[in-house]
Design brief:
four-stranded antiparallel β-sheet, binds adenosine-5'-triphosphate, 10 strands, 235 residues, six-stranded mixed β-sheet, binds magnesium ion, Rossmann fold, alpha/beta
Length: 235
Amino acid sequence: MMTTADSTPLLEVVDLRKTFVDRYFETPVLKGINFTLARGEMVAMQGSSGSGKSTLLTILGTLLAPTSGTFRMLGQDLTRLTESQLSEFRNRYIGFIFQHHHLLPDFTALENVVFPHAGRVGRETRVGLERAAMLLERVGLSDRKHYRATRLSGGQKQRVAIARALMNEPSLVLADEPTGNLDRDTANQSFELLTEIQRETGTTFLLSTHDELLASRCERRIRLLDGVVVTTPAH
Ligand SMILES: Nc1ncnc2c1ncn2[C@@H]1O[C@H](COP(=O)(O)OP(=O)(O)OP(=O)(O)O)[C@@H](O)[C@H]1O
Ligand SMILES: [Mg+2]
């Protein structure tokens, strides 16, 4: 779809704003967000509850339009694409991990993981199923491939969600409190898995978290404060 020199940032966000408007209220949430993500880095996004982390991740994931401003990913201005171009771009280049895994409950782990691929090529393929099985093995769930999502523990579901996010070999994984629902040990293990995968694949990760310990283990942190980004150096 596009080629760009590797020296360009993966993501450049410029003066991004979002104000929610309904009949009675205007709620300004993002008030001029500026930051870039280099290829292959793992960045934690912090900020108090209501500071706009989920809103920003949803916009960067092209699931919600900003009020103004631009963001470029892989050199492409995503604020200028049509809905169908966006959905193709999203499916090809972006993976999502949510706090509440969002697995399809009646489908097996394998079917959940292959889902984004099937969406992209129009059906489940043997190659897709093989990759899904490989990813499940990578997240330590080979023995749960054929279990329905409802038969998995919380930590296992979250590992399936990680595998699913990686299915289409995305350039960027957006994770909204990926360990927010897990106990300390399981959260640490999931985070460890994410960092290993990030190192192995060179995928860029932007993850929101309230977990200070995990944020401090990312290469870099950004903080949302009063609608703008404050950069915190890693220590
Ligand atoms: N559809 C909407 N209409 C109006 N206001 C909204 C809407 N969605 C979110 N908001 C407001 O935007 C603000 C930011 O919400 P958001 O969910 O992005 O915060 P957050 O940083 O992810 O918080 P948390 O840490 O609790 O998940 C909140 O004040 C919320 O009330
Ligand atoms: Mg949130």
